[in-house]
């Protein structure tokens, strides 16, 4: 009898010690997501870190399809908008979670002159060019391979945008590496090279909603953007060229502000954007990684920090969402149910010599990086 209880004690100790070491393992898994219009197979990678954070990334448009992070009580929920099925991305997506380019944001009238040659790009936003044109990098199937290092898992995506595509000069070869680490950071690293001078401005177009599974709109989120100036726009959302102080205006987000507090103010810039849809001129830009923005949702306690080397940040408050995009788990993405924080060079830089240059020349390497870091407060 005594022997039996000793044996039972011994075996429960073994089970217990097994549990203690049963930590979540960093992991990367590949599944089929469907077939793109051209018949090419599309995959989806699931990245999990040791804290249970999970990111799903597909090689269609280099899209982050879901991003599951804990709230302050340890409840894991999705904080990005997107679709369950590839077909919905193929049909109609306002750039949900995608990499946009070659030029993220707008180029006036789809025209620019470089080294004395005038180029005409596809126009897809009224008279203007937006996010790379009709078939930007958000609508192509990228080549992908998994990346696994000691404390991070990721996906390396590559694509070639051919000379003349959407009107751009040069064969542009781009690599985007997404990595998730155990510090709860999603890193996005971009590298491009070209064989003819061309403008390049790649960014990530994730729609965030930290309430979790899109429970509320984003108006109660608190935002902070480290910027004393922004680039005011005309009716077509093309910058006028001016860098205007945010002081005394609803654009002042340098002191953390509840989005809903200023968004409906009687302000010409907000009227043009139908809300926030502007580029902030980030402070302290010196080419090194800086904490430049944060987003906080008070009910869940979820917080997201944005680090970047880029000089600008487009804050778009989901003004064009109207419920017609039915997303994950049948959720209707209504007005302002998601917001984008797109790290970038300023819009229309190819036509604004006074803005930091976006021109990449043969022999040079375009290299930029952004981190979205998740914490709770
Ligand atoms: C960007 C633009 C917005 C809008 C969205 C996509 O962020 O600045 O005006 O076009 O993309 O709907």
Q: What portion of residues is helical?
A: under 10%
What shape does the CA trace take?
Answer: globular
CATH topology tier name:
Beta-galactosidase, Chain A, domain 5
Bound molecules: alpha-D-galactopyranose
Strand arrangement within the widest β-sheet reads: 11-12-13-14-27-23-22-17-20
Structural class: mainly beta
Largest sheet: 9 strands, antiparallel
Unreliable segments of 5+ consecutive residues: 6-21
Query: What is the level 1 CATH name?
Result: Mainly Beta
Question: How is the secondary structure organized here?
Answer:
Layout: H1 2-20, E1 27-35, E2 41-48, E3 54-58, E4 63-70, E5 76-78, H2 86-91, E6 98-100, E7 106-107, E8 111-114, E9 117-120, E10 129-130, E11 143-149, E12 152-161, E13 172-181, E14 185-194, E15 198-199, E16 203-205, E17 222-225, E18 227-231, E19 244-245, E20 257-258, H3 259-262, H4 268-273, E21 277-282, E22 290-296, E23 302-308, E24 312-316, E25 340-344, E26 359-360, E27 366-376
Antiparallel strand pairs: 1-2, 2-3, 3-4, 4-5, 6-16, 7-10, 8-9, 11-12, 12-13, 13-14, 14-27, 15-26, 17-20, 17-22, 18-19, 18-21, 21-24, 22-23, 23-27, 24-25
Bound molecules: alpha-D-galactopyranose.
Alpha-D-galactopyranose binds next to strand 24 and strand 25.
Overview of the molecule:
It is a single chain. This protein has helices spanning 2-20, 86-91, 259-262, 268-273; strands spanning 27-35, 41-48, 54-58, 63-70, 76-78, 98-100, 106-107, 111-114, 117-120, 129-130, 143-149, 152-161, 172-181, 185-194, 198-199, 203-205, 222-225, 227-231, 244-245, 257-258, 277-282, 290-296, 302-308, 312-316, 340-344, 359-360, 366-376. It has a 9-stranded antiparallel beta sheet with strand order 11-12-13-14-27-23-22-17-20. It has a 5-stranded antiparallel beta sheet with strand order 1-2-3-4-5, with no helix packed on it. By secondary structure, the chain is mainly beta. The longest helix is centred in the N-terminal third of the chain and has 19 residues, at 2-20. It has a single domain, classed as Beta-galactosidase, Chain A, domain 5. The protein contains 4 helices and 27 strands. Mean pLDDT is 95; it is low at 6-21. Alpha-D-galactopyranose binds next to strand 24 and strand 25.
């Amino acid at each position: 009898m005594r022997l039996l209880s000793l044996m039972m004690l011994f075996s429960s100790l073994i089970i217990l010690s097994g549990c203690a070491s049963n930590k979540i393992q960093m992991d990367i898994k590949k599944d089929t997501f469907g077939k793109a219009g051209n018949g090419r197979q599309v995959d989806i990678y699931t990245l999990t870190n040791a804290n249970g954070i999970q990111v799903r990334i597909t090689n269609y448009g280099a899209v982050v399809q879901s991003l599951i992070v804990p709230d302050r009580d340890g409840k894991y929920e999705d904080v990005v908008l997107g679709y369950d099925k590839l077909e919905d991305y193929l049909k109609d997506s306002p750039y949900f979670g995608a990499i946009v380019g070659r030029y993220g944001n707008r180029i006036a009238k789809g025209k620019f002159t470089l080294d004395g040659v005038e180029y005409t790009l596809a126009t897809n936003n009224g008279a203007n060019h937006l996010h790379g044109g009709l078939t930007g990098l958000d609508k192509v199937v990228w080549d992908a391979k998994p990346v696994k290092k000691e404390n991070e898992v990721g996906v390396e995506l590559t694509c070639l945008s051919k000379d003349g595509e959407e009107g751009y000069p040069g064969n542009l070869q781009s690599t985007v590496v997404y990595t998730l680490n155990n510090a709860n950071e999603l890193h996005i690293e971009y590298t491009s090279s070209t064989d003819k001078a061309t403008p390049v401005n790649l960014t990530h177009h994730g729609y965030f909603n930290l309430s979790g599974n899109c429970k509320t709109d984003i108006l109660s989120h608190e935002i902070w953007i480290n910027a004393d100036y922004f680039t005011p726009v005309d009716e077509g959302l093309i910058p006028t060229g001016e860098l205007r102080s945010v002081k005394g205006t609803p654009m002042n987000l340098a002191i953390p502000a509840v989005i809903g507090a200023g968004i409906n103010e009687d302000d010409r810039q907000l009227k043009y954007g139908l809300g926030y849809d502007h580029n902030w001129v980030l402070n302290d830009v010196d080419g090194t990684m800086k904490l430049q923005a944060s987003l906080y949702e008070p009910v869940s306690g979820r917080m997201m920090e944005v680090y970047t080397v880029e000089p600008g940040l487009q804050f778009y408050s989901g003004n064009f969402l109207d419920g017609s995009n039915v997303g994950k788990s049948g959720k209707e993405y209504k007005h302002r149910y998601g917001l984008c924080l797109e790290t970038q060079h300023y819009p229309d830089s190819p036509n604004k010599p006074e803005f930091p240059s976006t021109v990449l020349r043969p022999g040079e390497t375009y290299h930029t990086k952004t981190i979205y870091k998740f914490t709770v407060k």
